[in-house]
Design a protein that fits this description.
By secondary structure, the protein is an all-alpha fold. It is 85% helix and 0% strand. It has 7 helices and no strands. The longest helix is centred in the N-terminal third of the chain and has 35 residues. It is elongated and about 65 Å long. The chain starts with a helix and ends in a 6-residue tail after the last helix. The relative contact order is 0.13.
Protein backbone atom coordinates (compact mmCIF):
# COMPACT_ATOMS: atom_id res chain seq x y z
CA UNK A 1 0.00 0.00 0.00
CA UNK A 2 2.81 2.42 0.88
CA UNK A 3 4.49 1.76 -2.46
CA UNK A 4 1.25 2.31 -4.36
CA UNK A 5 0.80 5.65 -2.61
CA UNK A 6 4.41 6.58 -3.33
CA UNK A 7 4.01 5.77 -7.04
CA UNK A 8 0.86 7.90 -7.19
CA UNK A 9 2.76 10.83 -5.71
CA UNK A 10 5.58 10.34 -8.20
CA UNK A 11 3.02 10.48 -11.01
CA UNK A 12 1.69 13.73 -9.59
CA UNK A 13 5.25 15.05 -9.45
CA UNK A 14 5.65 14.24 -13.14
CA UNK A 15 2.43 16.09 -13.97
CA UNK A 16 3.58 19.17 -12.06
CA UNK A 17 6.97 19.12 -13.78
CA UNK A 18 5.23 18.98 -17.17
CA UNK A 19 3.09 21.96 -16.17
CA UNK A 20 6.15 23.91 -15.05
CA UNK A 21 7.88 23.07 -18.33
CA UNK A 22 4.83 24.30 -20.26
CA UNK A 23 4.97 27.58 -18.33
CA UNK A 24 8.63 27.95 -19.35
CA UNK A 25 7.67 27.44 -22.99
CA UNK A 26 4.88 30.02 -22.66
CA UNK A 27 7.27 32.54 -21.10
CA UNK A 28 9.80 32.11 -23.91
CA UNK A 29 7.07 32.40 -26.54
CA UNK A 30 5.56 35.55 -24.97
CA UNK A 31 8.98 37.21 -24.66
CA UNK A 32 9.83 36.55 -28.31
CA UNK A 33 6.42 37.75 -29.50
CA UNK A 34 7.03 40.92 -27.51
CA UNK A 35 10.28 41.35 -29.42
CA UNK A 36 9.14 40.66 -32.96
CA UNK A 37 5.63 42.13 -32.71
CA UNK A 38 6.64 45.11 -30.56
CA UNK A 39 3.90 43.98 -28.20
CA UNK A 40 4.08 45.43 -24.70
CA UNK A 41 1.24 43.20 -23.51
CA UNK A 42 3.26 40.11 -24.44
CA UNK A 43 6.21 41.48 -22.46
CA UNK A 44 4.00 41.90 -19.41
CA UNK A 45 2.58 38.41 -19.94
CA UNK A 46 6.10 36.95 -19.87
CA UNK A 47 6.70 38.72 -16.54
CA UNK A 48 3.44 37.37 -15.13
CA UNK A 49 4.23 33.81 -16.28
CA UNK A 50 7.61 34.05 -14.56
CA UNK A 51 5.77 34.68 -11.30
CA UNK A 52 3.70 31.53 -11.91
CA UNK A 53 6.92 29.61 -12.52
CA UNK A 54 8.27 30.80 -9.16
CA UNK A 55 5.10 29.60 -7.44
CA UNK A 56 5.29 26.25 -9.22
CA UNK A 57 8.90 25.84 -8.13
CA UNK A 58 7.92 26.30 -4.47
CA UNK A 59 4.99 23.90 -4.83
CA UNK A 60 7.10 21.15 -6.42
CA UNK A 61 9.89 21.66 -3.91
CA UNK A 62 7.38 21.13 -1.08
CA UNK A 63 6.08 18.02 -2.83
CA UNK A 64 9.61 16.61 -3.12
CA UNK A 65 10.34 17.31 0.54
CA UNK A 66 7.19 15.48 1.60
CA UNK A 67 8.16 12.49 -0.53
CA UNK A 68 11.58 12.42 1.09
CA UNK A 69 10.31 12.80 4.65
CA UNK A 70 7.15 10.73 4.57
CA UNK A 71 7.73 7.88 2.13
CA UNK A 72 11.27 6.64 2.97
CA UNK A 73 12.33 6.25 -0.68
CA UNK A 74 14.99 3.73 -1.72
CA UNK A 75 18.21 4.72 -3.53
CA UNK A 76 16.72 4.87 -7.04
CA UNK A 77 13.76 6.92 -5.83
CA UNK A 78 16.12 9.29 -4.03
CA UNK A 79 17.93 9.98 -7.28
CA UNK A 80 14.64 10.74 -9.06
CA UNK A 81 13.42 13.11 -6.35
CA UNK A 82 16.76 14.89 -5.91
CA UNK A 83 17.03 15.27 -9.70
CA UNK A 84 13.54 16.80 -9.82
CA UNK A 85 14.58 19.36 -7.20
CA UNK A 86 17.63 20.29 -9.26
CA UNK A 87 15.55 20.48 -12.42
CA UNK A 88 13.03 22.94 -11.02
CA UNK A 89 15.88 25.26 -10.07
CA UNK A 90 16.95 25.28 -13.73
CA UNK A 91 13.36 25.83 -14.88
CA UNK A 92 13.06 28.76 -12.49
CA UNK A 93 16.16 30.29 -14.09
CA UNK A 94 14.63 29.73 -17.54
CA UNK A 95 11.64 31.78 -16.38
CA UNK A 96 13.98 34.51 -15.13
CA UNK A 97 15.78 34.68 -18.45
CA UNK A 98 12.53 34.82 -20.42
CA UNK A 99 11.54 37.74 -18.19
CA UNK A 100 14.93 39.39 -18.85
CA UNK A 101 14.29 39.11 -22.59
CA UNK A 102 10.83 40.63 -22.13
CA UNK A 103 12.29 43.56 -20.20
CA UNK A 104 14.84 44.25 -22.95
CA UNK A 105 12.13 44.29 -25.63
CA UNK A 106 10.65 47.38 -24.00
CA UNK A 107 13.71 49.34 -25.19
CA UNK A 108 13.77 48.03 -28.76
CA UNK A 109 11.45 49.96 -31.04
CA UNK A 110 10.96 49.80 -34.81
CA UNK A 111 14.24 48.26 -35.87
CA UNK A 112 15.18 45.68 -38.45
CA UNK A 113 16.78 43.25 -36.03
CA UNK A 114 20.11 41.95 -37.21
CA UNK A 115 20.16 38.17 -37.01
CA UNK A 116 16.41 38.19 -36.39
CA UNK A 117 15.87 34.92 -38.26
CA UNK A 118 18.49 33.28 -36.05
CA UNK A 119 16.75 34.59 -32.93
CA UNK A 120 13.51 32.98 -34.10
CA UNK A 121 15.31 29.72 -34.75
CA UNK A 122 17.06 29.89 -31.39
CA UNK A 123 13.87 30.52 -29.45
CA UNK A 124 12.15 27.59 -31.15
CA UNK A 125 15.13 25.32 -30.57
CA UNK A 126 15.56 26.13 -26.87
CA UNK A 127 11.83 25.77 -26.29
CA UNK A 128 11.98 22.30 -27.86
CA UNK A 129 15.00 21.47 -25.71
CA UNK A 130 13.09 22.41 -22.55
CA UNK A 131 10.13 20.26 -23.61
CA UNK A 132 12.28 17.28 -24.50
CA UNK A 133 14.36 17.48 -21.33
CA UNK A 134 11.22 17.33 -19.16
CA UNK A 135 9.75 14.56 -21.29
CA UNK A 136 12.95 12.56 -20.94
CA UNK A 137 12.57 12.74 -17.16
CA UNK A 138 8.92 11.71 -17.15
CA UNK A 139 9.59 8.81 -19.52
CA UNK A 140 13.02 8.07 -18.02
CA UNK A 141 14.28 8.18 -21.60
CA UNK A 142 18.09 8.19 -21.64
CA UNK A 143 18.38 8.60 -25.41
CA UNK A 144 16.10 11.64 -25.46
CA UNK A 145 18.08 13.26 -22.63
CA UNK A 146 21.32 12.70 -24.55
CA UNK A 147 19.73 14.13 -27.72
CA UNK A 148 18.93 17.36 -25.83
CA UNK A 149 22.58 17.68 -24.83
CA UNK A 150 23.74 17.09 -28.39
CA UNK A 151 21.22 19.61 -29.78
CA UNK A 152 22.82 22.37 -27.72
CA UNK A 153 25.56 22.55 -30.35
CA UNK A 154 23.05 23.94 -32.85
CA UNK A 155 21.93 26.62 -30.40
CA UNK A 156 25.55 27.58 -29.70
CA UNK A 157 26.21 27.84 -33.45
CA UNK A 158 23.22 30.17 -33.90
CA UNK A 159 24.46 32.30 -31.02
CA UNK A 160 27.87 32.63 -32.69
CA UNK A 161 26.22 33.64 -36.00
CA UNK A 162 24.25 36.40 -34.28
CA UNK A 163 27.32 37.56 -32.38
CA UNK A 164 29.38 37.74 -35.60
CA UNK A 165 26.69 39.68 -37.46
CA UNK A 166 26.32 42.17 -34.64
CA UNK A 167 30.07 42.75 -34.45
CA UNK A 168 30.14 43.36 -38.20
CA UNK A 169 27.22 45.79 -37.98
CA UNK A 170 28.78 47.75 -35.13
CA UNK A 171 32.16 47.86 -36.92
CA UNK A 172 30.57 49.17 -40.13
CA UNK A 173 28.52 51.71 -38.13
CA UNK A 174 25.38 50.65 -40.00
CA UNK A 175 23.34 49.94 -36.91
CA UNK A 176 22.58 51.43 -33.54
CA UNK A 177 25.24 50.09 -31.16
CA UNK A 178 22.91 50.16 -28.16
CA UNK A 179 20.24 48.17 -29.96
CA UNK A 180 22.84 45.73 -31.25
CA UNK A 181 23.94 45.12 -27.68
CA UNK A 182 20.33 44.56 -26.60
CA UNK A 183 19.92 41.99 -29.38
CA UNK A 184 23.17 40.34 -28.31
CA UNK A 185 21.91 40.07 -24.73
CA UNK A 186 18.66 38.47 -25.95
CA UNK A 187 20.66 35.89 -27.89
CA UNK A 188 22.82 35.29 -24.80
CA UNK A 189 19.74 34.71 -22.64
CA UNK A 190 18.41 32.24 -25.21
CA UNK A 191 21.74 30.44 -25.22
CA UNK A 192 21.60 30.23 -21.43
CA UNK A 193 18.09 28.80 -21.59
CA UNK A 194 19.55 26.09 -23.82
CA UNK A 195 22.25 25.50 -21.22
CA UNK A 196 19.61 25.08 -18.52
CA UNK A 197 17.78 22.55 -20.69
CA UNK A 198 21.08 20.67 -20.95
CA UNK A 199 21.45 20.83 -17.16
CA UNK A 200 17.97 19.30 -16.83
CA UNK A 201 18.87 16.55 -19.30
CA UNK A 202 22.04 15.76 -17.37
CA UNK A 203 20.04 15.45 -14.15
CA UNK A 204 17.76 13.05 -16.00
CA UNK A 205 20.79 10.98 -16.92
CA UNK A 206 21.82 11.02 -13.26
CA UNK A 207 18.36 9.90 -12.16
CA UNK A 208 18.62 6.91 -14.52
CA UNK A 209 22.28 5.95 -14.25
CA UNK A 210 23.53 7.50 -11.00
CA UNK A 211 26.26 9.34 -12.94
CA UNK A 212 26.49 13.12 -13.34
CA UNK A 213 29.14 15.15 -15.14
CA UNK A 214 29.70 18.43 -13.27
CA UNK A 215 32.59 20.08 -15.14
CA UNK A 216 30.93 20.74 -18.53
CA UNK A 217 27.94 22.36 -16.76
CA UNK A 218 30.18 24.82 -14.95
CA UNK A 219 32.07 25.62 -18.12
CA UNK A 220 28.81 26.41 -19.92
CA UNK A 221 27.29 28.41 -17.08
CA UNK A 222 30.32 30.63 -16.48
CA UNK A 223 31.36 31.26 -20.06
CA UNK A 224 32.71 34.80 -20.47
CA UNK A 225 30.51 37.22 -22.42
CA UNK A 226 32.47 38.90 -25.21
CA UNK A 227 31.32 41.19 -27.99
Amino acid sequence: MMRIRFNEQLELLNVELIRMGALCEDAISAAMKALFDHDGEMAELAVSIEEEIDEKERSIENMCMKLLLQQQPVAGDLRVISSAMRMIADMERIGDQAEDIAEITKFINDYDITGGIYLKDMSGDVSDMVTDSIESFVKQDLELAMAVIEYDRKVDALFEKIRSELIEEIASKKGNAETCFDVFMISKYLERIGDHAVNIAEWVIYSITGRHNEKPLKERMYRTINI
